[in-house]
Design brief:
Elements (H helix, E strand, L loop, with lengths): L13 H5 L22 H6 L23 H15 L3 H10 L39 H4 L5 H14 L11 H7 L4 E4 L2 E3 L4 E2 L3 E8 L3 E8 L2 E3 L2 E3 L7 E6 L4 H16 L31
Antiparallel strand pairs: 1-2, 2-3, 3-4, 4-5, 5-8, 6-7
């Protein structure tokens, strides 16, 4: 770390790291080709070869503003490993993946695994490098599926219902996780690990070469401590792509799902589209369009 700013660590909290208000640098990570030497995660923080990104450092004061920082999540990764005396993949497997039965989620492709999507540079040309590798696991290293992401979202949704039994989180923890910390864009805010609006939480992502995704969960509508089956509230969707122009493809899919499910188009999606960016999928007859 920069010796001129390392004293700011005394003011840094896990909440800052989770809400991307840490003031730390490095938005994301490019990954490593199969032939590249892999650095340690600590080398990534120091910007020490063979790391291919600069040293992670403070660009502003902790808590001062929102600035997306994958570098902050690498610090969180190393902090958890030091606190729990376990590797990050094991921490996630024992505390999240196994309890939620996320059987297709890993931080590296298992040996002899053949059932995974390879990246494409065009509609026909595979990326010659294949998938990139990441040591920045908490920020960019997860292999998963839409179905597994929906299990994680459902666990948060269920935890928001007061009368729900055997939930993954306490209701207070789930509410605190989704509490807005800082405005981001067009009515969307950053919370702790999620972007949020009044009615939903979600996150977009992408890794080179050729991977993109978006997941969103709608808060359940609660009446007398019971969740009401009112679409889209309580519903969720997850989209993944492995080709070029990933953002365009993802938002076309999201628009199409809203159309096919007869969900009203919202002015803003958490961490996603804002009004005017919806793709040209015509609304079905009788679809309610949110006027706000």
């Amino acid at each position: 770390m920069d010796s001129k700013t390392k004293h700011l660590f005394r003011h840094l909290t896990v909440r800052h790291l989770l809400s991307h208000t840490s003031g730390l640098s490095q938005h994301g990570f490019p990954g490593y080709d199969a032939k590249d030497e892999l650095p340690a995660a600590s080398d990534v923080l120091a910007g020490k070869p063979p790391a291919n990104t600069p040293m992670v450092h403070f660009t502003t004061f902790p808590g001062a503003q929102f600035s997306y920082s994958g570098g902050g999540f690498v610090i969180l990764q190393l902090f958890l490993e030091a606190l729990l005396l376990k590797g990050f993949p094991r921490i996630m497997r024992e505390t999240v993946f196994e309890p939620l039965r996320m059987t297709r989620s890993h931080f590296d492709l298992p040996e002899n695994e053949a059932n995974y999507s390879v990246p494409y540079l065009t509609g026909h040309l595979k990326a010659p490098s294949g998938p990139y590798r990441f040591v920045e696991l908490a920020a960019a290293g997860l292999w998963t599926t839409p179905s597994d992401l929906l299990k994680a979202i459902a666990a948060v949704q269920d935890s928001l219902v007061p009368a729900a039994q055997n939930v993954f989180l306490s209701q207070a923890t789930a509410q605190d996780m989704l509490k807005p910390v800082h405005d981001v864009r067009g009515g969307s805010s950053i919370a702790h690990g999620w972007f949020v609006t009044d009615n939903a939480f979600g996150h977009s992502g992408g890794n080179e070469p050729g991977y993109g995704c978006y997941a969103i969960g709608f808060r359940p509508k609660i009446h007398s401590n019971v969740a009401l089956p009112t679409s889209p509230w309580g519903s969720a969707l997850a989209v993944m792509t492995n080709g070029p122009y990933t953002n365009h493809a993802v938002w076309h899919f999201v628009s199409a799902v809203f159309h096919l499910q007869n969900w009203r188009r919202l002015p803003v999606l958490p961490g996603g589209m804002v009004d005017g960016e919806w793709r040209a999928v015509p609304a079905s007859a009788g679809t309610e369009i949110d006027p706000s």
